[in-house]
Amino acid sequence: MYKILKEEGRAKRAELATVHGTIQTPVFMNVGTAAAIKGAVSTMDLQQIKTQVELSNTYHLHLRPGDELIKRMGGLHKFMVWDKPILTDSGGFQVFSLAKLRKIKEEGVYFNSHIDGRRIFMGPEESMQIQSNLASTITMGFDECPSSVADRAYVQASVDRTARWLLRCKKKMTELNSREDTINRHQLLFGINQGAIYSDIRIEHAKKISEMDLDGYAVGGLAVGETHEQMYEILDEVVPYLPRNKPVYLMGVGTPANILEGVERGVDFFDCVYPSRNGRHGHVYTDQGHLNLFNAQYKMDAAPIEDGCQCPACRHYSRAYIHHLLKAKEMLGMRLCVLHNLYYYNTMMEEIRDALDEGCFASYKRKKLDGFSQNS
């Protein structure tokens, strides 16, 4: 299922075989929260910009349009017309991000919907049922993501509960995958390591969840307020305690530099809203750092966003035209920036895999980081 092809230090070049195709890692998953990439990007577009994995949000799809409706429509792949792997998060991050709208108990979490205020409940079993209805390729265990500034006692109690929840997730997923009416009976389950910035709590939790022999493991609760240096220190401490023969997913990260540092530390999977969110605001990524195409300096710039880039924006349009679209508030400007950014990320991951194949990742990383610093 998961096979390491090359190694360079702790960095891994691998592949994960799934029912929806084989994922080449390291990989960046393109975030489509509500079964769509924000910025008017279709799944046909995703096929054109080298996307391997699309990521959707369990909590948001449960609220709208409803996971049972999606199941009746044949599952998320048919609903959004995407035949490659999909990862669904567990809804656990909303426990963190919607702190004012929820109450955490041993059985699960009580929410008030951010849409209409109605009372809803989600626990480990409910999260697995929703993700089974969605019929995604990879599911995530239900967890709490404690704040990076939470006190030690709170974090310890939270992590212990997350470990108990993960056992319930595994049991429920086994049951769901045995049912005749389950759309995808080959769903994979990844467990999530938590512990804020307390490395000893994270290490103990990593050891505990590693014993559960899941399909993969994630490091969650980073990129939520701690410094980049703290994040890298946590990865240095924790990743060695996760199974080497299973994929490792760093959740919600990050910038191109973050990804390079994560790969060096043994991470296989990444996701982040940065490329789409920043693109919608005219910020685009290049090998010389990021550009803000709203800036007046691009008003008469006939060059593409980046010379040599083969994305749909750079193949056809100038910085000047995209600058005009953004200033005129034409949706096409936003769409072109998002397409470029996602293509840039997906291409960078392709380059990372090639560098690992050739045994030159360290030099590739140095060159890439040096380029970013030109316009940081």
UniProtKB/TrEMBL annotation:
UniProt cofactor(s): Zn(2+)
Binding site for Zn(2+): C309, C311, C314, H340
EC number: 2.4.2.29
GO cellular-component term (any): cytosol
Binding residue positions for substrate: D89, S90, G91, G92, F93, D143, Q194, G221
Keyword tags: Glycosyltransferase, Metal-binding, Queuosine biosynthesis, Transferase, tRNA processing, Zinc
Catalytic reaction equation(s): 7-aminomethyl-7-carbaguanine + guanosine(34) in tRNA = 7-aminomethyl-7-carbaguanosine(34) in tRNA + guanine
Domain tRNA-guanine(15) transglycosylase-like: 11-370
GO molecular function: metal ion binding; tRNA-guanosine(34) queuine transglycosylase activity
Bound cofactor: record note: Binds 1 zinc ion per subunit.
InterPro entries, sorted: ArchSynthase1/Queuine_TRR, TGT, TGT-like_sf, tRNA_ribo_trans-like
Gene Ontology biological-process annotations: tRNA queuosine(34) biosynthetic process
Pfam name, any one: TGT
Region (RNA binding): 252-258
Gene3D superfamilies xrefs: Queuine tRNA-ribosyltransferase-like (3.20.20.105)
Pathway info: tRNA modification; tRNA-queuosine biosynthesis
Broad class of enzyme this protein falls into: transferase
Quaternary assembly: Homodimer. Within each dimer, one monomer is responsible for RNA recognition and catalysis, while the other monomer binds to the replacement base PreQ1.
Similarity-based family: Belongs to the queuine tRNA-ribosyltransferase family.
Role played: Catalyzes the base-exchange of a guanine (G) residue with the queuine precursor 7-aminomethyl-7-deazaguanine (PreQ1) at position 34 (anticodon wobble position) in tRNAs with GU(N) anticodons (tRNA-Asp, -Asn, -His and -Tyr). Catalysis occurs through a double-displacement mechanism. The nucleophile active site attacks the C1' of nucleotide 34 to detach the guanine base from the RNA, forming a covalent enzyme-RNA intermediate. The proton acceptor active site deprotonates the incoming PreQ1, allowing a nucleophilic attack on the C1' of the ribose to form the product.
Official protein name in the record: Queuine tRNA-ribosyltransferase
